[in-house]
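User: For documentation purposes, I need each entry recorded in a consistent format: the amino acid sequence on its own, followed directly by the corresponding structure tokens. There are two entries in this batch. Please keep commentary to a minimum and don't merge the entries.

Assistant: Recorded as requested. Entry 1:
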Amino acid sequence: MKTSAASEARSSPSSARSGQTLEAGVNYRFVDADQHLYEPPDAYSRHLEQKYSSRALTLGPGIAPGAQRWLFDGESVLPDHYERVMEPGAWKRVFSHTGEGKVWESDDVVIHPWERHPEITHRDGRLAWMDEHNIEATVLIPTAVCDTLASCGDMPLFYAHMRSFNRYLEDDWGYRHRNRIFAVPQLSLDDPELAIEELDRLIRAGTRFVLLPPCCGACNISPGDPRFDPFWERLVEAAVIPVIHLSGHSPYWEYAGRWGEPTQGYPVTDAGTPRFTAFQEYLAFVDRPIMDYIAALILHNLFGRVPGLRVMIVENGIGWVPYLLTQLDKCYRMAWDSPWLGGRPRDLPSELFKRHFYLSPFLGDRIVETMRLLGPGRLMLGTDFPHPEGVTEPADFLAELAGQPETVVKSFMRDTAAELYGLQA
């Protein structure tokens, strides 16, 4: 992996461990709300119950020579991120809104993570990388999430794959490794009973977080529907935080067909990059799915029934926040005397949003303006390491906060996420 001379000169792992920092004037370590792992070939099969082995999610040949893709029942269901991937930070210009921001692939930005990059594939290597980059703790989120299997027509099989993956996480990463790496297991609300069964097991295993997709899944039921209240209540009782992360599995794919677009992505490149049209990117990624998901939680009154719930919104940016809050408040007032699934919320949606949600912006988002809108302690650092759309230097975000009071900067770089993680002040 490429490392800049400036970053090499700033610090060493030993100085970061002792609490000294990479940046002058910063005397604390950062807490990251968005890091990822790349899965090994047996992530879904290692602990899959024997009765499901004939339909295991496995790796098979990809389109490009040497590439591999995740297969289910012989059909490709996910792009693979195993043999060759875009190096961390390769798409920084796209997500920081600078220059032309074109996404490209070439030999100088493609790496083989399992061959030479333990910081990407193993927890000891990740801890060393975190020390080098002044990171105290992070969540660790899957890359190849199996939520596409929700539509396979076999809920027990779908949940069996999630259970298998979660046990792999326990083996290789741990849910609270040294209180620094918080691996995030997968869950889904498609079957409430199976979801609570696995959630109870995860709570016993010590998880602090669970990953949920920003959509209603195959059940076509709002996540704010009262029938899911026992699941959300269990999260609050166990102090487990749901993490809603960008997902490639979206009902908007089907809707794309109404606009003359394909209802699925184009074949991935040999470096694992999904290929979509610009319209598909607009329709099915980031803004629209996450806004609808949040609207369902708020307008279906989940927080009126489960007031202690806190939700992390990760790798969905924040550009949509002002628009969403304005629209939700308007719709709330317009529909005052209409039927309300789950009951009418007592407070304005914008106030509920500010009370219950925590977000990680993209580099280049309007961080300071959004902080002023939401109030203190709602935005937090998210590097997205080691994905190409993220950053390799968490300190890059300090420039976004130039001129802000130190308490505001520290809240973003550490304190907000640290409180959610249960770390000491």
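Entry 2:
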Amino acid sequence: MGLLKEYLEKVKNPGFDLVSELTSLIKNYNEYRGRYLIIYNAAMHKGIASNQADIGINQTDYYYLKDILRDYDAKYENADVYIETPGGSGTATEEIVKLLHNRFKNVAFVVSGEAKSAGTIMVLSGNDIIMTETGSLGPIDAQIPCGRSVVSAYDYLEWLDQKYIDAKANKLNKLDAIIIAQITPGEIGGMNNSMNFAIDLVKRWLVEYKFSNWDVTETRHRPVTLRMKKMRAKKIAKDLVNHSKWRTHGRSLKIEDIKEIGLKIINADDEDEKLADLIYRIQIVCRILFDRTSIYKLYITADNLLTKTVVSSTRINSTPIIGFEISCQNCGQKHKIYAIFNDDPVIKKKYEDDGFKPYPRTNKLSCDCGAIIDLTGIRQDLEQNAKKKVLLK
């Protein structure tokens, strides 16, 4: 039986809990690998309307990851990061990478789904890269706002270069001329800087982390110098930013593609059957969790869980009080909380009659088992969508 079918059968059982299963898989992974697994996963193909921009890597992710690592099991010196993301902010990526490498001696990235754009940049900061046959990276580039959409800085600058050639040959059409007239030198400079920032991160991190233990060449067994590492890193960065090579920013680069440009990849399917099985199970449980709940982002370890969930901004803006449930990861107890945006005694009493308790002033919820649950992330999501502050009394 395939793993997907296995889990689809399991979820039919009312007693089966996806979050508990995911936590159990993480603990099994930690024990098997002797490393601390961190899951950082976005529901890339989930339509979430106003929250769509939050699917990508952003500064809030840094705060969430920092928070779930406050109480990590200190017996683990090394960490693996399971990542699925469409990409996002280069500066937020840099912050997250610093956080991980400052906290752990060795960091490996696990890719079984998609880790594109800034996600690829983050993966290239790993001391090791573990991939399954379903995993894919992508070309690196800065994504910049352009009108109503976000576009590739590389593609945009390439288009501008072609229009410059057309203008010199007196072949520039009127529509392109109108578009170009609205572009400022500052915008062009910003695009170049954003793209070069991504390239510089890859070159620096490959040398500092991925190539840190690369001492001799594989074929001729020659000593590897710092200059050789920098040259290899420069070539890889140049290849990954070359859209003429890959044709599109959304191209999926598989294990063979990554090896072809000079990166060593651990192929879990070929090298460790048990590890591959654990990774595929984690991937499937995450995806079913996304499909069956309002969660669109997961930050989870064996010790902590934070999620981002879809909340209708229309509902929040028109509702003075919002209630939500959260489960304790230590004992499983469910807690019902209400957050006030506009005080309404009648609605507040209704929530309290239904067993809801007011949002705590400290952002911390004390469970009966003694565990402390941090609600900061949930509050940030609610306030972001409501464009109002939670009223604390």
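Summary note for entry 2:
The radius of gyration is 24 Å.
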